[in-house]
């Protein structure tokens, strides 16, 4: 199963909106076939492994990181392919929470006389597909809020200058985060102030699959001449109210525009925006925004993970902070986090933290 998980990671940047899945077929104590799901619409991991094994698949044990599918989606059911190939046993790391599967794949295998079980290295399998699993279970994507800051927690000088706070190595790491994401999300204020591209360029070249770049823009104030529209990949503007003239200008620039529910303050309702993106099969959303929007996601309890790059310098108390979190006045109001990873990225420190469960 460990080998199957390593294979699944090969699809980290390419399988979206499908989950990353790996598969190894073992017979007589040796691997006779292996495969992983490379991209949506392509062969699933089990089918790739069966093709590699050929006749040696008969009587083999199949180790797969997610329960074999039992429905016709973009491809036929993998459970049926395993039955036809004559495998003797299937071990899945975890059941698939997709309502179209949800145990049906394992049940179909058992009905065909194949021994089938789930649970081996389940935690590792869960960690590989946080967005797909959350979307299936809760109708929401997994939300990462990424920030780059000085050691004293500042993300821009008082003037707004922020290039560059972190090192080239840290920025390259961010491109890898973008490449695995379904969506890179920002606010219209960041677009107007920084004119970012928000494309994924791991290794310095554009990724084959670009994430959907989403701008939360209550009043459709994003400039049609923004750099976003000159870079490869789709752009979606989510507004809180309609403006036919501004919509036409943004659509002429190449954007898709959609109106979603407004919050009481007139801005785009964050949860409504996330549910809209989940309905469009977005698994992982990377938020790259200023302190107001980043703080809003955290305060609303919608941030699943913070990825913070800390650079070894100080920018002073006049510089801008990481989060706007109004109303926190007493120690008991602090937002508790659990640090799940720390590592050096060049001269910088990368910290991954998640809200502590109450």
Q: Describe it for me?
A:
The mean pLDDT is 95. The protein has 2 domains: 1-128, Cytidine Deaminase, domain 2; 140-355, Dihydrofolate Reductase, subunit A (3-Layer(aba) Sandwich). The protein has helices at 2-8, 45-53, 78-85, 104-111, 122-128, 130-138, 168-180, 188-194, 244-253, 270-279, 291-299; strands at 22-27, 30-36, 61-64, 89-92, 115-118, 142-150, 154-156, 183-187, 212-216, 235-239, 256-259, 284-287, 305-311, 320-321, 337-345, 348-355. α3 packs parallel to α4 (104-111). The strands form 3 sheets. A 9-stranded mixed β-sheet has the order 11-10-9-8-12-6-13-16-15, with helices on both faces. It has a 5-stranded mixed β-sheet with strand order 2-1-3-4-5. The protein has 11 helices and 16 strands.
Main attributes?
single chain, 358 residues, alpha/beta, Cytidine Deaminase, domain 2, Dihydrofolate Reductase, subunit A, 2 domains, nine-stranded mixed sheet, 11 helices, 16 strands, globular
